[in-house]
Design brief:
294 residues; alpha/beta; Arc Repressor Mutant, subunit A; D-Maltodextrin-Binding Protein, domain 2; 3 domains; seven-stranded mixed β-sheet; 10 helices; LysR_HTH_N; DNA-binding; WH-like_DNA-bd_sf
Amino acid sequence: MTLQQLRYLIAVAEHGSLTGAAQELFIVQPALSRSLQSLERELNVVLFARVGRGLVPTAAGIQVINLARKVLRGVQAIKDLVHVEEPTHSGTVHLAATATLAIECTSCLLPGLAKRYPELHIVVDRQDSREALFASLRSGATDIAMVDLPAPGGFEVLPLRSYEVVLVSPKHTRLPDPVSWTDLEELPMILPSRRSARRADFEMLFATAGVRPTVAMETDDRGAWIPCVVAGHGSVLWYADLAQPFASSVAVRSMSPRLIRTVGMVRGRGPISREVRTLLDYSRRQGVQEIEYV
């Protein structure tokens, strides 16, 4: 068993597929598949079960995944123990984020960073879409980004924290709680525009579950999603933490099985400045969480 195998295992668990994990890891899918098969033979357990087009951790897989995360955190802790932190020079880091995650940056991450490193200036560049965000990274206009994972190939990724995604519906929508994925069949839903990368993520999610919701409305302005739900236009899949403040005006239900998504920091592969390294190290210390798959 190697640390690389454990990293591969966690990537497959986060993506729910070999294809997505292979793209993030920048390896070919057959190599990833062979690595997992070798690990299963060594442990004499089945780690994943195929559900539709996706992969879901088995009971044994959940335990191994959680232990793998602890092992990798321990390895990083050892590195931190012997790492002598260099003084941070004053400088500016341009951090890109979509509208929702820009709020996460400014309210949760940056205040503590500014207190710890007052000479480090972080400029949050709000991007209208994931496509614009990754284009900004590729062009060098921004140094780093906070995004919903997975990210396209060719980037270095640091997972930060996990969030539950829930179904947010008009108040009097009749659905069980939690909601089965089959309950989404023909359910009126608010979705991103048809040609966007975010819409493609939703379509893949629905295809994996084998359901076809009714498209009630399309908009890429995620800030408008909850008001549109309140107005009765349809339901939306949204972060539980962001939906709960509106619970008096909408119905918030967990999915069964639960839907977990991960937010992370993403940067291009190449030389890294001391300022960006400081931001990454601080983000990792503050934000990395163990993800429980249930």
